[in-house]
Amino acid sequence: MTSLLWYNVSDQTFINTTKETTPMNIIQYLLNIIQYLYQQNCWLLSFIYRYVPLKQWSFDDSHSPKYQKFKVDELPRIADLRQDWTYKDLIPYYEKRYGKKIRPISRRSDCDIPKDCSCPRCDAPMPFLYKNNGSKKQLLCKICNATFLPDVGRFSAAKLQCPHCGRALTPKKERKHFIVHKCVNPECPYYLNNLKKVDKTDLAEKYGKNKYKLHYIYREFTMDFFSMDLNSLPKNASSLKFSKHSTHIMSLCLTMHVNLGLSLRKTAHALKELYNVTVSHQQVANYCKTAAICIKPYVDRYPYEKNDVFTADETYIKIRGVKSYIWFIINAATRSILGYQVSDNRGVGPCILSMRMAFQNLKKLPEKFKFIADGYSAYPLAAIEFAKKFGNDFSFSVTRVIGLTNDDAVSKEYRPFKQMIERLNRTYKASYRQTNGFDNIDGANYNLALWVAYYNFLRPHKHAGYKVLNEVEMLQNADNMPAKWQILIYLGQQTILDMQKNKI
After folding, report:
1. Are 322 and 342 members of one domain?
2. pTM score > 0.85 for this model?
3. Do residues 399 and 410 touch, judged by C-beta distance below 8 A?
4. How far apart are CA 210 and CA 498, in angstroms?
5. Tens of pLDDT, residues 289-332
6. Best CA proximity match to 447, nearest among 310, 455, 242
7. Are 326 and 410 in the same domain?
8. Are 423 and 455 members of one domain?
9. Three-point CA angle 65, 397, 411, nearest 5°
10. Which CATH number belongs to the domain containing residue 380 in this structure?
11. Residue 478, phi then psi, degrees to nearest 5
12. Percent helix, percent strand, percent coil in the chain, to nearest 5
């Protein structure tokens, strides 16, 4: 005889009975317990939904104030203070209309306003300028009543304004390649809206507001990344005038080093063991530099097929033990590498340079163009610079796949594109791993240029039916891989001659 605890579903009570233990009784008992626990779970979920404030559930990560720092604000308004008339036109006009001539300011003490300072609106010289707010250096023009700062007014007649409240932006920080401007208006609707999203307990902490990006911020770049040369390559490479070896030995070095992923020393060792050819590892490196100089112009200027979806990402490498970065941009349809760059920093500059390379030979972007990247803010900043430089033809927004899980609709839809570029990073890292890092940035440059040439023109891909991504007729006619490297060098030389002829 065994005592069993029965659950009465009708009045939600337990009944203690004494019965003989049978398999059917145990099964019934367990089913009743499961039903009871299920009802309890439903009640708890209903209670949480009604009475527990889960603010984080009300918006996804893209709208959370914690992720506001990853967002890039829109462009500011630009107010041009310049007018068609100057102080020379205004002085006689005021005299004729009001019968009183405007005279220079009679100062009671020495004035420290720079003599070359002038009003940005009417070009009035220093004798017509007041100190408007004492030590804060703001000046007031006596003729047109314009207020300005002397350091700004002397060099620029344009004023940056917040697009939300219209207040002038204040320069806060100067960095290497840009100046950070900020809207400090406490009544700005953009600031007040972001402030509402932040939890009050976080605001109560010391410097709680500094944890979040609440104000409108604009980065003004001081370097023109659109005038920089994209074809820079390492110096001190070897000549193609071979005194000891031949082009065939050079192409064997490229095949072993780039295709097979052997290190420089292992490549030299393999040539000695297989072909009884004595080549130092430094000579192998010099051959690679020479080949990179010849091949890179052809690879960069090749007319790749460019569809309406690009995806981009950056990954780190080591140069002398210090972190540097590789930037990749690929065509999602063909998987070809369209833009690439080596940089010693993770700023906007190298991102713009890789985009310039990817957008070559495009007069305008496709109608339904998509640019997919992660949550790093360099990509939308670069997109803004392209819109500023080229207008609506190159105006695009960045689709940002954030995180590792599909927690939002954007990630669910565009995660496969992000996985493409991540797979490319792993493929490159597999060839980079044997180097154990580079000795200098020139070595990273020539290694990347050769690897991109191999990836786009020589490597068979599963995506393309185990064919190369970009078929070139001359390469198809080659019998072996060393011959293909020689043909690539020849095509690169022809490209260089065409560039010199056309003065590109």
Report:
1. yes
2. no
3. yes
4. 55
5. 889 988 999 999 999 999 999 999 999 999 988 999 999 999 99
6. 455
7. yes
8. no
9. 60
10. 3.30.420.10
11. -75, 145
12. 45, 15, 40
Q: Which domain range does residue 28 map to?
A: 2-52
- Asked if 377 and 310 touch (Cβ cutoff 8 Å), the reply is no
Which residue in the block uniquely carries the two structure tokens 């833009």? 339
The number of distinct structural domains making up the chain is: 5
Question: Residues 382-430: pLDDT tens digits?
Answer: 998 898 888 888 999 899 888 777 777 788 889 999 999 999 999 999 8
Position 279 in a domain: yes
Q: Are 445 and 233 in contact (CB under 8 A)?
A: yes
H helix runs in 52-127, sequence order: 87-98
**Helical H segments across 142-198, by residue range:** 150-153, 189-197
Using DSSP's 3-state secondary structure scheme, residue 191 falls into helix
Beta bridge partners of 324: 317
Question: Which one-letter DSSP state was computed for residue 148?
Answer: E
Question: Rounded to an integer, what distance in angstroms lies between the CA atom of residue 259 and that of residue 256?
Answer: 6
Whose tokens are 């320069």? That residue is: 171
Q: Degrees (nearest 5) of the Cα angle 239, 344, 417?
A: 100
**Of 174, 204, 221, which one is at a domain's C-terminal end?**
221
Q: C-alpha angle 48/51/57, rounded to 5°?
A: 60
Pair (323, 380) in one structural domain: yes
Q: Which of 144, 140, 102, 105 is nearest to 122 (CA)?
A: 144
* Contact assessment for residue 310 and residue 330, using Cβ atoms and an 8 Å cutoff: yes
Non-local CB neighbours of 348 within 8 Å, separated by 6+ positions? 177, 178, 219, 221, 225, 378, 381, 382, 385
Backbone region of residue 148 per phi and psi (left: phi > 0; alpha: psi in -120 to 50; beta: other values): beta
Instruction: Write the DSSP assignment of 353-404 as a string of letters.
Output: HHHHHHTTT-SS--TT-EEEE-S-THHHHHHHHHHHHHGGGG---EEE--SS
